[in-house]
Design goal:
The complex is a heterodimer of chains A (about 240) and B (about 450). Chain A is of the alpha/beta class and about 240 residues long. In chain A, about 45% of the residues lie in helices and about 15% in strands. Chain B is of the alpha+beta class. In chain B, about 30% of the residues lie in helices and about 25% in strands. In chain B, a hairpin with a 5-residue loop joins strand 6 and strand 7. Chains A and B meet through helix 2 of A and strand 6 of B.
């Protein structure tokens, strides 16, 4: 029997690579898509040797919206699962002063991911099957002074995924929204993270795999973030604006 | 962050960098005093630099495997257990493996690790075909026995002090089964143990567990364990049809640091007596799976915590063949008289060494571990003197406390290594807490 295929968008990130390892270990073939994807050659051989699966590499530029349909057309086959790990945080304090940098964050976390996920959503709907996984963030749950540019874009992505799930609910297509809290990755390497609240990329991968298998809709990594965000979301705006978090 | 080797002594507040690309490594080198760190399984301070420890954890990819020759090309941070898990099912195993599988390939090259088969197969370096290494100038150089051979020879066993190993081509051995046939022979004292080793040189694997609290005529009472890769016919019936299948084992985690008093001469003596009696009365030929045979301690995750909060020091030295009996007797007498029980004591026969700075030499090596205390630190200094008196030397991958003076006195090869490091300016760029302590 042919192995099911997972497409991972933004495949160079630590979370994406952890997802690649997790699914490969479970026997899935992989399509890894990223900018300058030839840099992923060592990862391709590593994954193929370790797990005896097939990996193909695909050039993908998330900000080049016009290329997205063609990108999907050119894949060797329509995957069973798409995991979108594209994202970019930048530095809030700089981004809030430089509009073009802020726009880049909006586009990298919302416009680009939503566009490409939308394209696969239509194809999956047509086929009548498939799973779409969008990696959003708890930062999208409420705009905070220290991170609202990134957060607002992730909020957009979360809303988009929720709408898509609603639309495709009885079309055989499942949509998973993943909301990681702190994850120890390249993106967060300069931040001071609280160890108890911080997940490893491998944890995110495990949660994603489980969410796909069990058809979960929204998953927090780690679970404690559900409660933290419940509190943060419910602080009255009058109080919230007086505290800086 | 607080960082230490596997012995949890010393603990340093070290700056750790986690590069993901070669370019990031080059950038971090500019700060100087850099040392590469793999999985932190050397015991002392070999992989520590207070200002610039460079973790290779993101360089952990397997790049190619040749199914005809067993040649593997891997990045330096690949962990041996991953290689075994990947290639054992198709019949490949490392030629040389240390006592834990949680070591990186870069670390195994840097320490030029040995296994239970040194007398027959040499150390890990023998199966390294080439190395790509970032030298002090920031260039990546490929070195092998024929290309940049001097760099190659100093890098094997060079404790990371010639540069940062990026990639290497190593060879694995073809095996027919995942099992080892083990034969255990009891020796009443050290003299008998040596005799058994000398008679058993044809065995691929040999190692002795030694009771270092026994005195007098029982000094050096030990169990010599000999091993061979099992052929399919020798396997347990359930495994004959799938000789390369490894039964899954439960791993146990040490949940907390044991109080410092748990390991004392009484508890160790008690354990030793039971163990010796038990193994002596077991059937002589046993068939053991690879994991239990090569890596018994890996089953206990964090076993280093049983030594308590102060950590422990491994002590491993080698004495040359001609001095073996007298040297080992003196070492063991000193230990048993001190009453400091070493919980794990291992004796091993080495063959000759072919590289420039590696630890092994033809002779006998004794590996011990002691919980850190002033008394034990003094005892180890005493053991240093005895080793040196008998023309022996010390294993740097285990060392955390040897003095510069004793090191330079015991290690005639150090002068050439220091000279080499100075000529290639490696001395300015690459340093570990250990190299600074030892004056390398």
């Amino acid at each position: 029997m042919k192995k099911p295929v997972v497409l991972i968008l933004g495949a160079k990130s630590d979370i994406a690579l952890a997802v690649a390892h997790f699914f490969a270990k479970k026997g899935y073939d992989l399509q890894l898509a990223a900018r300058s994807c030839s840099n992923l050659e060592p990862n391709k051989s590593d994954l193929e040797l370790r797990y005896k699966i097939c990996v193909t590499l695909h050039e993908f530029e998330c900000l080049d919206i016009i290329s997205h349909e063609r990108f999907a057309d050119n894949l060797p086959m329509l995957p069973s699962i798409v995991v979108c790990a594209v994202g970019y945080m930048g530095d809030q304090s700089i981004n809030e002063k430089k509009n073009e940098l802020a726009v880049n964050v909006f586009r990298s976390n919302f416009e680009g991911p939503a566009s490409i996920i939308g394209i696969f959503a239509n194809r999956f709907e047509h086929r009548g099957s498939g799973v779409l996984v969008g990696i959003s963030s708890v930062a999208g749950e409420r705009g905070r002074a220290s991170n609202y540019i990134y957060g607002s874009a992730k909020a957009g992505l979360s809303a988009y995924l929720s709408g898509l799930r609603n639309r495709l609910g009885n079309k055989g297509v499942h949509v998973v929204t993943v909301l990681p809290g702190f994850v120890e990755t390249k993106m967060t390497q300069d931040l001071k993270l609280i160890p108890k609240l911080t997940a490893q990329p491998e944890d995110v991968a495990r949660y994603i795999y489980k969410a796909v298998k069990k058809k979960r809709d929204v998953v927090y990594v780690k679970g404690i973030w559900l409660f933290i965000m419940l509190v943060i979301r419910n602080i009255p705006e009058k109080v919230f604006k007086k505290i800086y978090i | 962050m607080n960082l230490s080797g596997w012995g949890r002594y010393p603990i340093l507040d070290a700056q750790v960098k986690n590069p993901r690309s070669e370019q990031e490594i080059f950038d971090f080198l500019a700060k100087g005093n850099a040392i590469a760190r793999g999985n932190g399984r050397s015991y002392g301070d070999s992989s520590l630099s207070e200002s610039n420890t460079i973790s290779m954890k993101y360089f952990d990819r397997i790049l190619s495997f040749n199914r005809e020759t067993g040649q593997l090309v891997v990045e330096a941070g690949v962990i041996l257990s991953d290689l075994i898990e990947t290639f054992l099912p198709s019949g490949w195993f490392p030629y040389v493996t240390p006592g834990t599988k949680y070591v990186t390939v870069g670390g195994m090259i840097a320490a030029d690790v040995h296994g239970k088969n040194h007398h027959k197969d040499g150390s890990f370096g023998r199966y390294v075909e080439w190395i790509d290494i970032v030298v002090a100038s920031g260039e990546v150089k490929r070195c092998s026995r024929t290309e940049n051979s001097e760099l190659f020879e100093w890098t094997i066993g060079g404790m990371g002090l010639t540069g940062i190993i990026l990639r290497a081509a190593i060879r694995f051995r073809p095996i027919k089964s995942a099992w080892i046939v083990q034969k255990t022979i009891a020796a009443q004292n050290i003299k008998q143990a040596i005799e058994i080793f000398e008679k058993s040189k044809d065995y691929t694997y040999s190692v002795a567990w030694i009771d270092c609290l026994k005195k007098g005529s029982g000094l050096g009472r030990s169990l010599v364990m000999l091993g061979e890769h099992a052929s399919t016919e020798e396997l347990p019936p359930n495994f004959v049809k799938r000789p390369l299948f490894s039964p899954l084992k439960r791993k146990v985690s040490v949940p907390f640091e044991f109080p410092n008093w748990v390991l004392n001469k009484f508890s160790v003596r008690f354990f030793n007596a039971i163990y010796f009696w038990y193994r002596k009365h077991q059937s002589k030929n046993q068939i053991v799976d690879w994991d239990s045979y090569f890596y018994p301690l890996d089953k206990l995750i964090n076993w280093n915590k049983i030594y308590g909060t102060k950590g422990f020091a491994q002590y491993q030295s080698v004495v040359p063949l001609t001095q073996a009996e007298s040297g080992l007797c003196e070492l063991l007498e000193t230990i048993s008289n001190s009453g400091s029980g070493s919980f794990l004591s291992v004796l091993k026969r080495f063959g000759p060494q072919d590289s420039r700075f590696s630890f092994p030499m033809e002779g006998y090596t004794l590996a011990l571990d002691f919980p850190i205390s002033n008394r034990n630190l003094n005892l180890m200094t005493e053991l240093d003197k005895i080793t040196m008196k008998h023309g022996g030397r010390f294993y740097l991958a285990k060392d955390a406390r040897l003095s510069k003076q004793d090191f330079l006195k015991s290690e005639k090869r150090a002068i050439d290594f220091i000279k080499y490091r100075k000529s290639g300016v490696a001395a300015d760029v690459y340093n570990s807490a250990q190299s600074e302590r030892l004056g390398l």
